[in-house]
Amino acid sequence: MACSVYYSSYYGSTREYAEALAQRLGTTAERIPELAAAIAPQGPIVVLSPAHGPLNDGATFVLSLADDILEHYPVALATVGMTLDEEAVAKDATAGLLNKRADRVARFYLPGRLNYSELSTQHAMLMKGLISALRLKPKKSDNEKNMIATYGEDVDRVDLSRLDPLVAWVEKNQP
Ligand SMILES: Cc1cc2nc3c(=O)[nH]c(=O)nc-3n(C[C@H](O)[C@H](O)[C@H](O)COP(=O)(O)O)c2cc1C
C-alpha cells in the first residue's frame, strides 16, 4: 500500500508502533528526518510521536512541512502517551500544537509505555517535579490521580491492535 511512515521515539514504544504499522502496510518506518524538505512521500503520510509535555516532535515535523506537501498528501499524526485514553481524545492536545494546520491533519492517540526504571536523569527530574506539583493540586482529574498512583513504576500500555484505525485511515486515503 502507498504510504510513508515517520516516527520519533526516546524509549522505543513509538518505534514499536511505527514498525508494526509499516509492516502491516508493506512499507518501512523512518525516523523523522532533520530536514523536512528532504522527504519524498509515497501516498498518505503517517507521523507517530511521543507526547512530552508541550513537546511533540511529530507536530513540529508536520508544522515544518512545505505547504505543497500538505496540499498533495493526506497527513495523520498519532501521538503516543500515558494520558488515559478518554482524556487524551477529549483534550486533543495535538490540535493545539498543530495550530492552523490542525484541520488538515487527522489526529490519533495511542497508549504508551513509561518505565521509570529506564528514564534519563533529565526526564526523571522532570517527572519528579511534575508529580510533586500534582500532589499539591487541590482538584485532580482521573488522569492526574493515575499519574501519582503509578509514579516510580514501570507501566506498559502499548497495544498494537490500537493501530487498526490508523490502518483504516491509510486504506481510505489511498491515491
Ligand atoms: C519527560 C516525559 C514527559 C511526558 N509527557 C507526557 C505528556 O505530556 N502526555 C502524555 O500522554 N504522556 C507523556 N509522557 C509519556 C510518554 O509519552 C510515553 O512514555 C511514551 O510511550 C514514550 O514514547 P517512546 O517510548 O517512544 O519514547 C511523558 C514521558 C516523559 C518521560
What would a concise description of this structure say?
By secondary structure, this protein is α/β, with parallel strands linked by helices. It contains 8 helices and 7 strands, in the order E-H-E-E-H-H-E-H-H-E-E-H-H-E-H.
Give the fraction of residues assigned to helices: 40-55%
Number of strand segments: 7
Low-confidence stretches: none
User: What is the typical, i.e. mean, pLDDT?
Assistant: 96
Structural class: alpha/beta
Query: Order of strands side by side in the largest beta sheet?
Result: 2-1-3-4-5
- Write the H/E string, N to C: EHEEHHEHHEEHHEH
Topology (SSEs and partners):
Elements: E1 4-7, H1 13-25, E2 29-31, E3 45-50, H2 57-64, H3 67-72, E4 75-81, H4 85-91, H5 93-98, E5 105-111, E6 113-115, H6 121-136, H7 142-149, E7 154-156, H8 164-172
Parallel strand pairs: 1-2, 1-3, 3-4, 4-5
Antiparallel strand pairs: 6-7
Bound molecules: flavin mononucleotide (FMN).
Describe this structure in words.
The protein has 175 residues and is an alpha/beta fold. It has eight helices and seven strands; from the N terminus they run βαββααβααββααβα. The longest helix has 16 residues, at 121-136. The chain is globular. The N and C termini lie close together (10 Å). The protein binds flavin mononucleotide. Residues 9-15, 50-53, 80-83, 112-114, 119, 123, 126-127 line the site of flavin mononucleotide.
